[in-house]
Amino acid sequence: MTAAKEYKQTLIEDIKNLPLFLKFDACTRIRTNYLGITVRYYCPKDKIAKTKTLSVLDTKAEHRGEHIKNMIVEVLDDYQIALKNVILCVTDNARNMIKTVEAMNIDLKLAALIERSDDVGGDDHDEDSDSGSDIDDNDLSDDTNMELEIESVCPPNVEHMRCAAHTLQLAIGDGLKNKQLSNVVAKIRSVAKEARTPKIAQIIKDKCGKVAVVDQETRWGSTFLMVDRAIELRPHIQHMVDCGNTKLHLTDSEWKQAISLRDLLVYAYKFTKRLQEANLSPGYFYHKWNNLKIHYITHGSLLGQVISESMTRREDELLGVDCLLAAVVTDVNYMQYLRDEHEQRGIEGVINLCLRLEGLIDDESEVNAGNLNSSVDESDYDSEPELARSCRAYMMEVDHGTSVDDSDNESLPDTEVSTANELEDSDRMQQSSQPTESSTGRPSSSTDYERNITPPPRSGRKYSMDIEREKRPTTPKETLRSNVRQALEQIKRNRKVLRVEPDPIEKYPDCIKNVSRLLKAMPSTQVSVERLFSALRLQKSYLRSNLKADAINALLLLKSNSVIEKEK
């Protein structure tokens, strides 16, 4: 227990104030329900991505999303981790896990609303302290205004990603539910069970040193292994059939279907094994997922069609995560495989994450970060000099076919009136020097010209200065957006050169270097939590079924983290 407490303090210092990716899942071991929580983050000190176990807790048989959220928040508080530092959560597709992440985001919105209300209330109190006025309680009691206020705060959001391995498991499982395929699998399962009877299993083991495998029906990976082993033992099974055991009999057509099923599942099985790697990059996962779907689409078989349709149906929830797409956008090895719509969303994700890390996410006066073609609002011109603003207003009036009246000029300073008149005379002289024709084909008079005037081409030094001012970012957020977009375009152009670098991110522009390292550490699966449950099975056996929860937590904290560090 003492060693666990000491290691916990070390871990607290290691992850202090760092953005994190959270992974959690639940399991049952010897009639006790547990919640496992791990984190993954990029450590600037060691310059590597790390995966750490935070806690394994007894849920007291409570599986509601709100209860799980409260347990996770308690663990985060225990490790001095602010919920706003959690960038993304990776869970399976269970409904209670989805509700847990939704509850986290509600807490973040409420916390941002309270903080914003406190700031506004403090400012109002300072301004009105001399007059003794108070804040109206009706403003805080209106539920409609409260809801609108929550939406307008736009606090940091915890994104939710479904585990890639679990999603693929469900997609392949959907394909195996087909009636024709399920009949083939059921017959092979019957043969495998018969081949595992003691007498037959011993005969087959003496001949080839292997025995038949029976699958677990809820896991298609074990189904693939069962079919593969049955095909491998086919000569020995056929020999037993010739000796009179009809329970092992399969027709040639059924064996051909089994071989086709194995060949179709082997690609997905290998991909699933790769998904279990500790340092799987998001770009590699995105590329292989699309390759796997194309493989099944072009296969032409019934199973391939069903699996591809299921993958397409589920990939909106899997690949629709902005953080994942942002990680692929910043990966020079896989950014070229992004679809157009995913690339745009990925760029938005990088911009939003940069703004979040710079602490600029809560500024309400800014244009939405999702707008890649950021526009300049009229309010941005409030800081312009009076002369430039009046000239710009005049040119906008010319665009609409109107002119500046003398009464308007009278209200302007002398310098502004003279400048506006000079621009007006210059534009009219340029237009009058070019003859125009009326609808009858004859040159129109000057009166007709003035009546049917079109927006003249605008030029001049002052106008050029105004245009440059309009295009120039006017706030820190716009400046950061512009820099990030330019940096992403730069690494996209130079990706072939960057690929040969041992550490391509080191050559990235400074504005996206830290974000790129963080995104490269993003997990695509929750396999680290599954490994934690495997360790739990070893620690809490039937011989030690009465271990207390804090003892199990301390043992797993030391064991799992030391193993992870040893692997790295």
Written overview of the protein:
It is built from 25 helices and five strands. The chain has helices at residues 2-14, 65-78, 95-128, 138-141, 143-153, 164-176, 179-195, 198-208, 220-232, 234-242, 252-275, 282-299, 302-319, 322-329, 340-357, 386-399, 406-410, 414-432, 446-451, 461-471, 476-493, 495-499, 510-520, 527-539, 549-567; strands spanning 20-29, 32-43, 48-58, 86-91, 159-162. Among the domains are: 2-122 and 139-157 and 526-567; 164-276, no CATH class; 378-430 and 450-473, no CATH class. Helix content is 61%, strand content 8%. Strands 3-2-1-4-5 form a five-stranded mixed β-sheet, sandwiched between helices. It is of the alpha/beta class and 568 residues long. The protein is globular and about 85 Å long. 30% of the residues are buried. The model is unreliable at 125-154, 362-420, 426-454 and 563-568 (pLDDT under 50).
Core attributes:
disordered C terminus, alpha/beta, 5-stranded mixed sheet, 568 residues, globular
N-to-C series of helices and strands: HEEEHEHHHEHHHHHHHHHHHHHHHHHHHH
Write down the overall geometry: globular
Task: Please give the radius of gyration in angstroms.
Answer: 33 Å
What's the number of extended β-strand segments? 5
What structural class do helix, strand and pairing data support?
alpha/beta
What average pLDDT do the residues reach? 77
Number of alpha- plus pi-helical segments: 25
Percent helix? 55-70%
Low-confidence stretches: 125-154, 362-420, 426-454, 563-568
Strand content: 5-15%
Largest sheet: 5 strands, mixed
Distance between the termini: 25 Å
Strand order, largest beta sheet: 3-2-1-4-5
